[in-house]
Amino acid sequence: MSNVAIVGATGAVGQEFLKILAERHFPVEELRLLATKRSAGKKVLWQGQELEVQETTHESFKGIDIALFAGGSASTEFAPSAVKSGAVVIDNSSAFRLDPEVPLVVPEVNPEDVKNHKGIIANPNCSTIIMAVAIKPIFDLAGIRRIVVSTYQAVSGAGREGIEELEAEVKAWSKGDEMTPAVFPYQIAFNLIPRIDVFQEGDYTKEEWKMVKETQKIFHAPDMAITATTVRVPIFRSHSESINVETEKLVSIAEIRESLCKAKGVIVDDDPSSDRYPMPWFSADTDEVYVGRLRKDFSIAQGLNMWVVGDQIRKGAATNAVQIAELLL
Amino acid sequence: MSNVAIVGATGAVGQEFLKILAERHFPVEELRLLATKRSAGKKVLWQGQELEVQETTHESFKGIDIALFAGGSASTEFAPSAVKSGAVVIDNSSAFRLDPEVPLVVPEVNPEDVKNHKGIIANPNCSTIIMAVAIKPIFDLAGIRRIVVSTYQAVSGAGREGIEELEAEVKAWSKGDEMTPAVFPYQIAFNLIPRIDVFQEGDYTKEEWKMVKETQKIFHAPDMAITATTVRVPIFRSHSESINVETEKLVSIAEIRESLCKAKGVIVDDDPSSDRYPMPWFSADTDEVYVGRLRKDFSIAQGLNMWVVGDQIRKGAATNAVQIAELLL
């Protein structure tokens, strides 16, 4: 049995941690809920116990075995203290992901990397996790030369405030009221915002670079060529991705389909004859990555297109982190 | 002065034809509004005249110089009669687009093809037009070897009924009522549907094949490799496209930017430092194609990514058709 802390326990990912620990019967001895001062004192019911949210401090981690960090600036501030206290940190922020000392893990792809941790294990970016699960069987079967990916990312990627902003904007629109964006730079209701996170090198956004560099690290494939365009869409919580893959070896779509059908964590939902393909509304609240619209790319010799959907808060964040914790047991 | 007929005058594209003919001061002598029996008798105010919608019949085109067909099954049924009556048909349906006898025209790309018509000129698919305008300067500057495109298409692509369905679903959701899709195969509010039009060869949709084959025809470039994934998004009327281009020649992004800035029909809206990029909400009701997020694709030697937005009903349909009509004058 482990003593587990959740840092950021009142946010969208933090709340999902609570649900997933219970659902997966994670062997929790003590569950300590930590958040900012503003949320301290809130009561949360979990598995029949009433737990009080405490303010995160450098002393919060005494006796904790596993600290799940939901993301944000708390990671840089408190993860080192958690490690010093003897906890293993599983961190959902981007702070440590590209640190060569920190394993970056998707359990379906590189579970063995967990062993190399020095106190911190990073949970990848949500879009990266979802893509990694879907491309892993193809990587194993045929190798991957190049990926061109365009994303359709839900507002949940901006946390609970993102979800509330889309709700508020749509309700304002329904009443003919004005919409006043605060979380997103522009109105997101009935709109698309082709910029997620800050702009960086080469006019790519940080989100786009995460999909490139994190994927290369997870697969230990620094030469896997990847280019990404990441877009916020007015969807509540599942991310979708249009992924074009050029493989190293020539394989048939039938072989790829078979490898996807057998893969852990993947559900192939792909039947044109009965109009089946993955859609975000119908994949919310699930842990699998859905793959559909699988087809040969006729524009190159060894290419394929696919459409991939996964719940951003669950497999894209909380579930993946708890799966990492399970690997530690 | 020309006698102009609009077939499908009461639909979303038909209504836009009326607006655009007036806005562009098209030299109209008589304007004849045609539609299905259901809409016959409706009165429409245009340029101070009250016009009555008539049922389309094979005799509807006497004395008509230019017949603008908004799309749908009326084209196959009545376009031949219109041609027989001496009219030039500009057809927004997909019926004749790939017919080698029928020019398929985007005025910014291949205006000269208009001359070869034998009575019918086809207006391309909306997503195709928007992409064609954006890639034309790149095609001229550097040649295009391959395109990987993923679309984010508005509900207006399914006509007025599509717009009304999204409105109705969102209003139902706001009140906690159930949503009942009829136009689209599944709920579109807060959802993405990665299937537009019917499935065809290779498990591609007809919409995806249109983007491939129509683009190759417009550019007279049967070897330009194109692969497309087309997706319906809960946006009212502008289509967006994430376009990855591999060029034939090596050119810099600065050169491409310059060619786009000079191009007819293109507005470059691209400034990361002031958070500027094209968005569908802000491009509705305009005739230009907006290009942003222009950047080098580091995954190949001669690649670029860009984000392109255009009003599906205007440049993607009605404006392009009226521009073709202007070429005929």
From TrEMBL, chains A, B:
Reaction catalysis annotation: L-aspartate 4-semialdehyde + phosphate + NADP(+) = 4-phospho-L-aspartate + NADPH + H(+)
Positions annotated to bind substrate: 153, 232
UniProt-listed Enzyme Commission number(s): 1.2.1.11
Binding site residues for NADP(+): 10-13, 38-39, 156-157, 312
Binding site for phosphate: 97
Protein's recorded name: Aspartate-semialdehyde dehydrogenase
Pfam families cross-referenced by the UniProt entry: Semialdhyde_dh, Semialdhyde_dhC
Domain Semialdehyde dehydrogenase NAD-binding: 3-117
Catalytic residues as annotated in Swiss-Prot or TrEMBL: 126, 239
Gene3D superfamilies registered for this protein in UniProt: Dihydrodipicolinate Reductase, domain 2 (3.30.360.10), NAD(P)-binding Rossmann-like Domain (3.40.50.720)
MF GO annotations: aspartate-semialdehyde dehydrogenase activity; NAD binding; NADP binding; protein dimerization activity
Lineage: Bacteria, Bacillati, Bacillota, Clostridia, Eubacteriales
